Amino acid sequence: MTLRSRDFSDAPVVLEISDLVVRVSDRDLPPVLKGVSFDIRRGETVCLVGESGSGKSVTSLATMGLLPRNALHVEGGRIALNGQNLLDVSSAQMKQRRATDLAMIFQEPMTALNPVLKVGPQITEVLDLHTKLGRAEKKAKVLDIMRQVHLPDVERIYDSFPHQLSGGQRQRIMIAMALILEPALLIADEPTTALDVTTQQQILSLIAEMQQRHGTAVLFITHDMGVVAEIADRVCVMRQGEIVETGPIRQVLETPRHDYASKLLDAVPSLVPRPSRQAPPATPVLAAQNLGKTYRSGSFLGKKTEVRASHGVTFDLSPGRTLGIVGESGSGKTTVARSIMRLIEPTDGRILLDGDDIAHLTSSQMKPKRRKLQVVFQDPYRSLNPRWTIARSLTEGPLNYGVPYDTAIAEAKRLLKIISLPEDALRRYPHQFSGGQRQRIAIARAVMLKPEVLVADEAVSALDVSVQAQVLDLLDELQRQTGIAIIFITHDLRVAAQICDEVLVMQRGAVVEQGSAERVLHDPQHEYTRALIGAAPGRFWDFAARKPLVA
Amino acid sequence: MVIERPAAEKPLSLRLLSQLSPASTGIAPFIATILLLAVILLTVFSPWIATHDPLAMDPLKRLQSASGEHLLGTDAYGRDLFSRMILGGRTSLVIGIAAAATALILGVLIGLIAGYFRTADAIIMRAMDALMAMPSILIAIALVALNGPSIGSVIMAITVPEVPRVVRLVRSVVLTVREEPYVEAALALGSSTPKILFQHLLPNTMAPMIVQGTYIIASAILTEALLSFLGAGISTEIPTWGNIMAEGRQYFRLNPGIILWPGVLLTICVLSINLIGDAARDGLDPRMKKREA
Amino acid sequence: MTSYLIRRILSVIPVLFLVSIFVFLLLRLTPGDPAAIIAGDNATPETLARIREAMGLNEPLLTQYVKWMGGILQGDFGRSLISGVPVLDMVAGRIGPSISLAVMTIVITILVAIPMGVIAAWKHRSWVDHLVMSFSVLGFSVPVFLVGYVLLLVFSVKLAWLPPQGYRPLTDGLGPFLERAILPSLTLASIYIALIARMTRAAMLDVLNEDYIRTARAKGVGERRLLFVHALKNAAVPIVTIVGAGFALLISGVVVTETIFNIPGIGRLTVDAVLARDYPVIQALILLTATLYVAVNLLIDLSYPLFDPRIRY
Questions:
Q1: What is the pTM of this model?
Q2: Complex ipTM tops 0.85
């Protein structure tokens, strides 16, 4: 696979946005979009890429005429579809043009379909609204498009409710619904972000296939440079409501002109594992032996059900090393993390912390052990008590273990320097910090107790890529200074490649492959690992090096 | 100690007050606050405002309509309605506030326990279901009928049916918040159960409890009136809004004012409290809905 | 499915059991001699002894409870202390008017409140919304009996359009029935409409913010279809839930409304029984209404799958 290099200069322009300005209604704030201009031609894919808050979703909603009423409004500019300015069209006409001329698919296939209506009729509704076909014709057309998006057993799925389908199937339904009337323009707003990588791969190739078949112009919105490399013909890099860089994909990835675009590319973690570090000293600080957790449910009269959330997990972790647990959603990786933290009690196996088995300790027996074992969670907005000052959050742990307040505060100040926050942060509250800053504070809180093991559960997944890089650097720095051992739970192979010494790949609760990061990523033995690596978007490109990756 | 540990960045009272300024949420809560203050002042200072002795009977002036001497007329014993009404409001308000405070304290304690300790949860919640299943007005009149018409038993009768609603609300907040990563992090940091309960979970219930508290005061004032109206309230010698209106039932055709005037004042009072509760709810947590019944 | 059904039906047993204990203890645990409370202040020692004997108050609590519960399970709720008539017969004779009042109220409420809530949510923050919300908060704030008396004053006393009080069964003809039932039903509906309209609005506002509503708009679905096909069905579960929870409100309202309009139903029976300390009647009424409440809410629970296919039993 390589970058696309198709030429569309002869194709007609489908969408032309010029000088689009969008403002927040009734507030005197700078505009959300400050004069955005770009165009898309027939059969072409243009990627709008940017971090959260850059205005990429606002651009797509403005094009659809779906900006939230009373909140945002278009102040100026032009959105021309096949030459006609959509901003001049009446709302009744606009309603008619949606689905017929322009259609949209959204990020969350879980919530984008109406949960109380069957999916077949939801697609048929498009035909009800915009065509005068007979019942049989409609159904035939719906089943046909469902086959085109490669849904299995279409007759059955036609009569299914959304919750009975997988995430990938729902996104296929959304695509079928969007494309059934062959609109000239398809807007895809982060359509694969909520999906696992393997499903993402399938959906991306489906969009490409449908585009080729129908000659659709696609506006693809994403934050993921890997996805951009897979599907874009042209790229627009957005920041703070402006397009700062635009050009053919190869040009942007090889020779970005704008600083911000370069920074964005530099921050994309490479799939090439970092050089392996020297072998660990002998005694592991933490070991799991055949660790497992089975949920049993069902009361009297009810059927007993057993769910093996994870089983047979065995590893050793030495000080100063990082173990990655990699897997897709539902693989059981978070169950392992929670078992090790003893937020839940495992049902099988042993957890040895400094040689003592903590798998079944009571909460009071656990208390002295807890200071050796700390955790950082995924969502920076929920990791800190919103009502507590940073000082109170940071000192919570030490005070629990009888450390005097002055000593704890001194340590908190020292750590604030390491996480590059000013000392007056102590008196402030979480909401006064950005997501990345909060995540750094959460890490500082975890290391206040000088733990021996830090469990990072998807700790960078909710962060923008540039912030992600800072947090990964921070963890690395802390590890070098303190020799802490880290268990890093992630779904993202790129992140795992950058930070882990060893990797453990999980699928459906079981460990399918385990070994040094270099070995697993370079020479995967298990077919699932191979599939996972094969599905990593943009794996053929080394973004920071601006060149293809030679495997 | 180097760093003082300050209270919330903007105290709850300030956040509430800012909700009540006319600029922030429209004019309704602002007017409501002024009206409520007026009712409170009127009732608290009733001994000085009253034009007549509210208990003095005058058989010659029975059931008079409004006049210069008697602002709102007189009742069946010739007592001045206006003076009785503002004095009666005092008792009604005290009952409302006392019942709300009791229901909140009991409800928060029971709710915290039910939400945090799984073993206690099933039993507590079944008991709450049972309490909810009995129509509150029936429990209340039965309790008053059995315990006698004292202020204490009326407060208890109003409190008991309100407790399960508070328990359910607190429990649902606790169940949500205990899954928050910062609570799990506190667990990992070695915080004890009481610390997690009272320092992490309890503060989260404060905002909904303030809102709920206003609704309970409103509903308690209504229930008091209802109990008296049905003849199962405080002893009729003590004027309350409910008692005054209950006495007016018989003379409704002759002088509807005996029911209407206290009714209007009570409605203004309850309406103001409800509007303030709504404003507080929208301001403190836009997602919280009005209690379920 | 069936196993869930059985478990769900069995789960009401502990609730009803606790209700029965509460009702049982209500009298026994109040300070003072229950017999004296029942007999009133002027009772002679002989009367007290007779009451104690009749109610079995001399036996241990557990025995009393078992006997009492055993009787109830066989349909014997005891006899009225005042009239000596079996309680069940008294209730049966009074249930008709209450049921017709309740049914009319529910019909009026659903016809009025749901459209009100839907439109308020649709026109969120417009004057329609403000009007609905004002009506709703007012409905919560006016004592039910005040509404009743104002309606009486206007339509019966001043305008003399409707007979003031009383009750005529439907079998006497639709006209006489409606004449007397309309004011009580409107009185009772005022607070119920306030509750349901408010809940409908809140549920609809939640749903209208969902992604699938945006999807429907992106398909070009019109507003009416959007509201009543896409949104309302999703909002149905919280709405029917509140209809069930509001049932308790309805029962309380029935007590008051029947008193104002002089309707010989369960509500009046309750008030009369309480004022006369007719204890077996009070016990039976609390037990029966609680059972009714539990049954209604059970039915509502079981109806969820009709509205939401994700809920499966």
A1: 0.81
A2: no
